[in-house]
Amino acid sequence: MPQPPVPRESRVRAGIVPPYLLLRIAAAEEHYDVAADAARRSLLRDEPMRELRVEGAHPGLLPHEHTRSATTGRDHDVEAEGEGAPVDAAVPEPAPDRRISDAQGAESLPGHLVRTEGQPATGDVAVDQAYDGLGEVWALFERVYGRDAIDGEGAPLEATVHFGDHYDNAFWDGERMVFGDGDGEVFRGFTQSISVIGHELAHGVTEMTARLRYRDQSGALNEHVSDVFGALTEQYAMGQDAEAATWLIGEGIFTELVQGRALRSMLEPGTAYDDDVLGRDPQPAHFRDYIVTDADNGGVHLNSGIPNRAFALAAVELGGFAWEHVGRIWYDALTGGTLRPNDGFAVFAAATLAAARERYGDVSREVAAVANGWRAVGVEPE
User: Fold this and answer.
1) Is residue 287 assigned to a domain?
2) Could you list the residue range(s) of the whole structural domain that residue 289 is in?
């Protein structure tokens, strides 16, 4: 069964845009009148974030049998059945339950419900992008990993769009995904990126499973897991293999005024943007460059680049579709019940290696690729 809900006062507002980037924008008022003001107000809204301090982990789901959908052609998982087990045709197929609300520029949640599952497109771009994006995230988790929604039991997928006045972020608040429209100078609307939508929903999955504390190394892992499943959602939706994938998080949310491709690059941390005003992407790509700081909840958005690169390197080494191999390993590690809220990189690396051995065998390409990925970024599994 899923973990009991986290009390609202203990929930983390896990935003996709790091505070260090908002601070740079806030200080750039001579270049961006609207964006600087929007960034300052966004920082004030995000300041009351609380740390997640919940102990324990959900044991997760059992391994699933690998099958291919006859209707979509995509890979997905079904519960392994005993030989000759009868199939109950009356059991309905899992389906998403999407509920999109509109905050109409206010900061109160959830806003006005404007589109529910099965309803036609509204014509509001943000509403319809959120609806479609949630469908893609649900498809990845259900068809590949056998997880029906965030809690694994078909809970509604709730999202609110048009949050705040020029709000420069998107976040998971413990119940729903919330998307701002951006300021129009630096950021476009945050529903434009499937990787952002997948990133935010994955925070909910982490909250229901390993509950990685949102600070220091465990917080960087929390952000890393969301980046992983954000990237995999985009790759799955677009049918991209590991070589064709961009490995970018938030591609398309910068306007043409910014010299940058995205918020983060998983394959090449530190290269996502290099802008005369906003500066250069500060993410480290190796553990020797780990940033010790009190800001950004102990550098959760900064240091997530280290495990991000380990994952991407393992996926590229294996080739093919990343969600089929390294994605399965990371999902097994996240939901396997061995992680604790304060675990760091070395413990998580060991969990992924154990998951790879369990699924693919001690002597396998998958185990070697995962080990090589962690070795390349200087993390020694504990």
Assistant:
1) yes
2) 10-81+93-376
